TrEMBL record, chain A:
Organism field: Murimonas intestini
Primary location: membrane
Protein's recorded name: Ferrous iron transport protein B
Record-annotated FeoB-type G domain positions: 2-163
UniProt-listed Gene3D superfamilies: 1.10.287.1770, P-loop containing nucleotide triphosphate hydrolases
From TrEMBL, chain B:
A Pfam match: FeoB_associated
Highest taxon in the source lineage: Bacteria
Record's keyword terms, sorted: Membrane, Transmembrane, Transmembrane helix
Protein name (database record): Attachment p12 family protein
Record field: transmembrane: 6-22
């Protein structure tokens, strides 16, 4: 029979790092609270029959948040054999609040005091033996990051789980509270095991109505509650909270010695600069410029050029010694040698290799970007960005809590949208869902890199500007939507613990980069591959003189895809890219955003251009002006996301009307912004003034009006009396 | 003959791709978002 050990502790106390170390898993570790929302399980290394459960970080066993509900339901309902309680040694007072609750559950508890290396560095001391004595449970010092003490903690947890019986909680509250708890315990029937009675008694005293669903029969304790509330002149929840902190304070006094001489920590010093009222935003902007500049325009470009021009082009030289041929030429030679039919050769070279190769060509740039993002997340800077953004978002109707989904959305929009469910305020949640995908996800990076590289000659500002266009779209949407009746109201307060900065491990960074990069490569080998086959077929087959046949390169204007593209391309004429090729690229991007690049790869003859030895994206550059290319980039960044993300929006909105409103808003905004950029940009760069230019100026005026019109609090409440009467 | 062999290989690859996508879908992973479930915190499985 297997043993179950649950890892429980405060957010950002190092549970997932410990979980990975104990199980050999590769779960994502982030240096901000709330990385783990759902529980995860893995087997303890060297013990096939021991299951370790990583629970979301929680501050208490009170059901205030989704994470607390998930963790509490598991601990009460599933009852693991032991709890390994991870405590952040640098913040022990707050962490012990949860520990006192865990000890009441009647489950064997072993406490692992984490980050002991930091405690020592700060000059503080935790007297483990005294702590053990005071809490009545085994206490071990560990450093999950450095791997010290974790084996011992796991072995002791396994041994404790084998005993099955938990020691009763030794901490006691004030005499009056204890006698009240005894009275409630006596009213509990036999369906509650003896060792759990204290926990349920405390919860009933706290008037925790959700606990009642876990009980077969609920005794009436209202008389006891009203009596103690009258005696202590406070509500019972506050009484219990106070009692816990009185107990914790007594422990801290005896078990911890603080370094009185301690000055500001390194984290505090860094925060004085990076979260400074005036410097925070310029520093954030500079960081993101560097990230995108290095990823897309410098280091990433060298690697991508090697992929595009070498691996998927006309070959590359290995240390100047051996000339390695490119994949298309090797495949072409092989297919010619075995006498493969022209259409099949076309499918493989012009379809699969050109389409998938075009997407894979951007993998190096993505990996560089993912390294940067992983570093910023793991070192703790991104948590500060949420704090910085809260100050700005709040002015525009959103809270910093909305930035967390956007942060996650920079990898992929789907989990970003899903993460919005932690926002309690329904208006804020809906607005966050609508705006999260404005932040460029990993799949949009190839589009950014393509436009920056092929059409702007690698100009430094193009890639970072894509990120800032996303942020600007979120802020402007916040301002505009908040002034409508649907979203009016103050944003919910945002409370977030800022974790200490730490240097992330190379393993953690590489693991995070590889996870994100691998999902991109996997996608290229599945959904992108199937899409390229469909795009190739519809590109190279069509009707000429009433006959359906395979087309030559010069006849592609008669293809099925050209017919589809021509039917819709007129919509995009005001945006500057009204040719059928760009139109279908934007449409195929709805399946997956990488498809935009894959489709261009097929339509602009990726393999053939490479064979000629010319610039791989040269033909694309010749078909679009720079302003039109930027308009194309903005449209693809802001318009409706891929189908997967749309599915996530639909699930999270849980309402067809709201879903279509979100998609319509995103697409409409993308169209308006792209139109204004192209029309006004063309006028500035020497174009003529036309009807669409006038429309662009009108739209800018309308946009400015919506941004700056005064916000009016509603002075009337409209109630549909007829509707209410009917409902009754 | 070359066409038949290459055609069979391409069909096999497509079959494997579709099979892996169906398998991922059945096991609760997302096909289009790349299935980076460990990174997203398993939030797809919450409903």
């Amino acid at each position: 029979m297997s043993i179950k050990i649950a890892l429980a502790g405060n957010p950002n106390s190092g549970k997932t790092t410990l979980f990975n170390a104990l199980t050999g898993s590769n779960q994502f570790v982030g240096n901000w609270p709330g990385v783990t929302v759902e529980k995860k399980e893995g087997k303890l290394k060297g013990h096939k029959d021991v299951i370790i459960m990583d629970l979301p970080g929680i501050y208490s066993l009170s059901p205030y948040t989704l994470e607390e509900v998930v963790a509490r339901n598991y601990l009460i309902g599933e009852r693991p054999d032991a709890i390994l309680n991870i405590v952040d040694g640098t913040n022990i007072e707050r962490n012990l609040y949860l520990s006192t609750q865990l000890l009441e559950l009647g489950i064997p508890v072993i406490m692992a005091v984490n980050m002991m290396d930091l405690v020592e560095k700060n000059g503080d001391k935790i007297h483990i033996n005294k702590l053990r004595q005071k809490l009545g449970c085994e206490v071990i010092e560990i450093s999950a990051l450095k791997g010290t003490g974790i084996r011992e903690a796991a072995e002791k947890a396994v041994a404790l789980a084998g005993k099955k019986n938990a020691e009763p909680a030794v901490h006691k509250f004030a005499a009056g509270v204890e006698s009240t708890l005894d009275e409630i315990e006596s009213r509990l029937d036999d369906s509650i095991p003896e060792r759990q009675k204290r926990f349920f008694a405390v919860k009933l005293l706290e008037k925790d109505d959700k606990i009642q669903t876990q009980m077969k029969s609920v005794p009436d304790v209202s008389d006891v509650i009203s009596r103690i509330e009258k005696e202590m002149d406070d509500d019972t929840e506050s009484i219990i909270t106070n009692e816990r902190y009185v107990f914790i304070s007594s422990i801290i006094d005896e078990c911890c010695t603080k370094n009185r001489k301690r000055r500001m920590t390194t984290s505090d010093k860094i925060d004085r600069v990076v979260t400074n009222r005036w410097l925070a935003l310029p520093i954030f902007a500079a960081v993101m410029v560097i990230v995108y500049l290095v990823s897309v325009s410098t280091v990433g470009t060298w690697a991508t050029d090697w992929m595009n021009d070498g691996v998927f082009g006309d070959g590359w030289s290995l240390f100047g010694l051996v000339q390695v041929p490119g994949i298309p030429s090797v495949l072409e030679g092989g297919l010619d040698a075995i006498g493969c039919a022209v259409w099949l050769k076309g499918l493989i070279l012009d379809g699969i290799v050109a389409g998938v190769g075009a997407v894979l060509g951007f993998v190096p740039q993505m990996l560089v970007l993912f390294i940067f993002l992983a570093f910023l997340e793991a070192c703790g800077y991104m948590a500060r960005v949420a704090f910085i953004m809260d100050r700005i978002f709040r002015k525009f109707g959103l809270s910093g809590k909305s930035f967390i989904p956007m942060l996650i959305g920079s990898g992929c929009g789907v989990p970003g949208i899903m993460a919005s469910r932690t926002i309690e305020n329904d208006r804020d949640r809906k607005m966050t869902i609508m705006t999260t995908t404005f932040i460029p996800c990993g799949a949009k990076l190839p589009i950014i890199a393509l436009i920056a590289g092929a059409l702007f000659g690698g100009a430094w500002w193009v890639a970072p500007s894509a990120y800032f266009v996303g942020i600007a779209a979120i802020i402007c949407s916040g301002i505009i939507l908040k002034k409508t009746k649907m979203f009016a109201g103050d944003p919910a307060p945002f409370v977030m613990e800022l974790p200490a900065y730490h240097m992330p491990t190379v393993g953690n960074i590489l693991r995070s980069m590889w996870e994100r990069g691998w999902s991109f490569i996997k996608k290229a080998g599945t959904i992108i591959l199937l899409s390229t086959i469909v795009v190739w077929f519809t590109t190279y087959f069509g009707w000429i003189d009433g006959q359906f046949r395979m087309l030559e390169d010069m006849e592609l204007d008669h293809s099925i895809l050209a017919a589809i593209g021509n039917a819709v391309s007129w919509i995009f004429i005001p945006l500057g890219w009204g040719d059928w090729k760009s139109a279908v690229a934007a449409i195929t991007g709805l399946v997956a955003k990488e498809n935009v690049v894959g489709t261009f790869g097929i339509l602009y003859g990726f393999a053939e251009v490479a064979e000629d030895g010319s610039e791989i994206w040269g033909t694309l550059a010749g078909s679009m002006t720079a302003v039109a290319a930027y308009s194309f980039l903005i449209f693809n960044l802001l318009c409706a996301p891929c189908f997967a993300a749309m599915g996530a929006i639909k699930r999270e909105m849980n309402n067809a009307k709201w879903f279509w409103f979100a998609i319509g808003y995103q697409t409409g905004l993308a169209y308006v912004v792209s139109l204004c950029v192209y029309q006004i940009g063309s006028l500035i760069t020497g174009g003529s003034f036309g009807i669409w230019t006038a429309a662009a100026f009108l739209l800018v005026i309308g946009f400015l009006y919506l941004l700056f019109r005064p916000y009016r609090e509603s002075s009337t409440l409209r109630v549909n009396m007829k509707g209410m009467a009917k409902a009754k | 003959m070359g066409t038949i062999i290459v055609g069979m290989i391409v069909l096999c690859v497509i079959g494997l791709v579709v099979r892996s996508m169906v398998k991922d879908k059945k096991s609760g992973k997302s096909i289009q978002c790349g299935g980076s479930c460990s990174h997203c915190g398993g939030q797809c499985h919450m409903r």
